C-alpha cells in the first residue's frame, strides 16, 4: 500500500489550491480527510511552517514557506520524516517553476495544472524507491524535526479551529459591527472640496519653499514643515470624514491643532485673511467629521 496517498500545493494566505495529485481513493474516510485538509489549508497562515494532523486512519502533513505550502495525506505507517522530506522536495520543485508573482496573481483553483504531473512523479518516487536511497535527505529532515518539532493537531482540531464539528457550529457568532457611515451632506462635500484646496495650497507652497531653501538658505526648515504638516493634516481630515476610524474625536482635535499651529507659525508668509481661511476650513471639516455618525442598520438575518 502506498504511504503517501494524496498531495497538493496551496497558497498560504487564503488556502487556494494551486495544483494537486490525481486522487484514486474514494472511501468515505479518505473523502472526510480531504474535506478536513481543505479546512486546514484555509488556516495555514495561523500555524508555523510544519505541522501534522493525525486521525484514526490517515494523517495530514503540511510544510509552508513564504506564500506556498505543500500538503499531503499519508497512511499512519508513513514516517513523519519521510512525509516532510517529500513535502520539502515538492516545495523546491514548485518554487523553482513558478515565482511569487505568479502565485500571488492566481485567481482560480488549480491554476497550475501542468504541475500535477510533477507531483505524481515525486509521489511515486517516495512511495516506491527504497528508503536507503534517501538516507541522507531523511537524516537531515530527522535532525530538523528533532530541534524544531512540527505542531501536532488532530483531524478533529481542524474543524474545531474553524468553528465546526460534524457540520454544526460550536459557538455563537455575534454579527460583525456595521461601520457604514451616514450619507454625505452638501455641506460635507463643500468641506471636502475646501480641504483639498487648502491641502494643495500647502503642498505647492511647501515644495516651492523647499526648492528655494535648498538653493539659498537652510534656516527655513520650520516654514517648510509648517506647510507640509498642515497638508498631511488636511488629507487626513478628508479620510476621517469619508471613513470610520476609532478614537475619531482625538484624531480630529490633533489634526485641527496641527493646522492651527502651522498657520499661526506662517504669519508673515501668509496674511491674516489667508490664515483665517485655512483655520476656518479646518474648523468646518472638524465639525462635519464629528457630526457624521455611524448609520444604524439592522443585521440582515434572512440573507
Automatic annotation (TrEMBL):
Ranges of residues in domain Longin: 8-119
Main location per the UniProt record: endoplasmic reticulum
Residues passing through the membrane, by range: 184-204, 224-242, 249-266
One protein family per Pfam: Longin
Topological relation to the membrane, as annotated: Multi-pass membrane protein
Keyword list, A-Z: Endoplasmic reticulum, ER-Golgi transport, Membrane, Protein transport, Transmembrane, Transmembrane helix, Transport
Localization of this protein: Endoplasmic reticulum membrane
InterPro entries in the cross-refs: Longin-like_dom_sf (IPR011012), Longin_dom (IPR010908), SEC22a-c_C (IPR059071), Sec22a/c (IPR043546)
Annotated family: Belongs to the synaptobrevin family.
Function: May be involved in vesicle transport between the ER and the Golgi complex.
Protein name: Longin domain-containing protein
Organism annotation: Rangifer tarandus platyrhynchus (Svalbard reindeer)
Biological classification of the source: Eukaryota, Metazoa, Chordata, Craniata, Vertebrata
